């Protein structure tokens, strides 16, 4: 694990253990299982299942590759044993290979030389020992009926009505945090939640159609290579905001567009000069490229509002092409960025319907012309950097609103929730998304 992950797992595992003890002391009943939403390679679950915690973990993960890696790590950590599912292998060939390596017959009898990928992880249920149960599935809501139906092993010793689970997660992306928090309301067996969210840009929106940029900047909300308009009109009841208070505040509720949610993912207090310089440079390159697209006819200008006869940023905008990320080498210069973007737009199948337009409009652009654009707009980079800095410093405000909304949602279910709060669990310098939302059921 990287230093950041070690910090998160170590601190959160200890926090969950203390929280479970306090909640059990207050209710008089201990938790039987801990459900990890979006477990990934299960670093948190593996830590909690190991001594001194020895918890029973239900790891819910949508990607089978992550789950396979997690099982390999379980074997390495000693939580699981490696067993050959087929039990068919050439023992003589293995012995010959071992002897070539200088391994004695006695040692051959005690070791297994097969690749780990040929083995399966088995988890023995022992008293005072934690277990891990993996459940493959992509959660689309907070109802855990399907998840619970897949449980085996340790769960067979506990009656369904006796299950007392805590939903936990480190940095569950987007709506996954909402599912984890709502799970305590919708599932009788979920008795507590402790969720640290992240990736606020992936949250869907409940109060209106999805936004891609501030509506004032682009009133159509529709880039030329975005999702179809019919899907853009969707309002997701699982999205932000969760609470009735925020949903109805001021009559229409509070919405956060995509730019605000992306800003909530920033940690400007941790920025170094090098990191902030790279951040501003990327946005400068993107802005200049969109100007090239406009001048070359790849995109067109959109007029809105009252016609004043004078074109300005207040009555016109564009429908930009959303390119996404490029290879690291593409950010070394504007020329490299433009060339990388053109290559992606003309070769990537996701942009196939626009590749011909890009080839026709930009196929003959020269490095000298790109350099002239960079020189012409170089002085505007300082303005762009200032605006993005001001936006980035709103990160704490936006994140606080999102977390407060989740806390309010729990508060609004006072008939079910005995107590709820928000507190920090990580050092901001190590992991800036450090706010955990906790709820304890009555």
Automatic annotation (TrEMBL):
Pfam families given in the database record: Methyltransf_32
Protein name: Methyltransferase domain-containing protein
Residue intervals of the Methyltransferase domain: 4-205
InterPro entries the UniProt entry points to: Methyltranfer_dom, METTL25
Superkingdom field: Eukaryota
């Amino acid at each position: 694990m990287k230093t950041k992950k070690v910090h998160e797992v170590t601190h959160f595992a200890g926090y969950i253990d203390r929280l479970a003890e306090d909640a059990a002391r207050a209710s008089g009943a201990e938790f039987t299982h801990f459900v990890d939403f979006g477990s990934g390679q299960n670093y948190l679950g593996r830590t909690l299942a190991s001594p001194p915690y020895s918890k029973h973990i239900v790891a819910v993960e949508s990607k089978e590759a992550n789950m396979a890696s997690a099982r390999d790590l379980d074997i390495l950590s000693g939580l699981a044993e490696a067993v050959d599912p087929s039990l068919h292998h050439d023992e003589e060939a293995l012995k010959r290979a071992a002897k070539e390596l200088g391994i004695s017959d006695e040692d051959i009898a005690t070791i297994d030389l097969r690749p780990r990928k040929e083995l399966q992880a088995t988890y023995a249920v022992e008293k005072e020992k934690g277990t891990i149960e993996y459940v493959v599935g992509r959660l689309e809501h907070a109802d855990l009926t399907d998840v619970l139906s897949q449980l085996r092993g340790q769960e067979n010793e506990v009656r369904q009505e006796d299950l007392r689970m805590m939903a936990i997660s480190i940095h569950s992306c987007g709506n996954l945090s909402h599912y984890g928090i709502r799970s305590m309301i919708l599932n009788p067996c979920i008795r507590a939640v402790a969720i640290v969210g992240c990736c606020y840009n992936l949250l869907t929106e409940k109060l209106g159609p999805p936004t891609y940029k501030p509506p004032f900047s682009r009133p159509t909300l529709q880039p030329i290579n975005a999702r179809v308009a019919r899907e853009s009109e969707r309002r997701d009841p699982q999205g932000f905001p969760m609470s009735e208070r925020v949903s109805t505040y001021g009559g229409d509720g509070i919405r956060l567009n995509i730019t605000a949610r992306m800003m909530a993912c920033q940690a400007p207090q941790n920025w170094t000069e090098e990191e902030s310089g790279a951040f501003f440079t990327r946005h400068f390159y993107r802005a200049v490229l969109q100007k090239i697209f406009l001048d070359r006819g790849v995109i067109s200008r959109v007029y809105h509002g009252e016609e004043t006869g004078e074109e300005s940023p207040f009555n016109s905008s564009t429908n930009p092409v959303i390119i996404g990320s490029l290879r690291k080498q593409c950010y070394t210069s504007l020329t490299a960025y433009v060339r990388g973007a053109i290559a992606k737009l003309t070769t990537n199948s996701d942009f196939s319907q626009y590749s011909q337009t890009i080839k026709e409009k930009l196929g003959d652009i020269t490095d000298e012309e790109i350099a002239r654009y960079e020189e012409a707009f170089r002085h505007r980079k300082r303005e762009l950097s200032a605006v993005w800095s001001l936006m980035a410093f709103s990160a704490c405000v936006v994140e606080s609103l999102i977390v407060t909304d989740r806390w309010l949602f729990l508060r609004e279910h006072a008939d079910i929730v005995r107590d709820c709060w928000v507190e920090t669990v990580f050092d901001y310098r190590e992991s800036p998304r450090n706010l955990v939302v906790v709820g304890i059921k009555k």
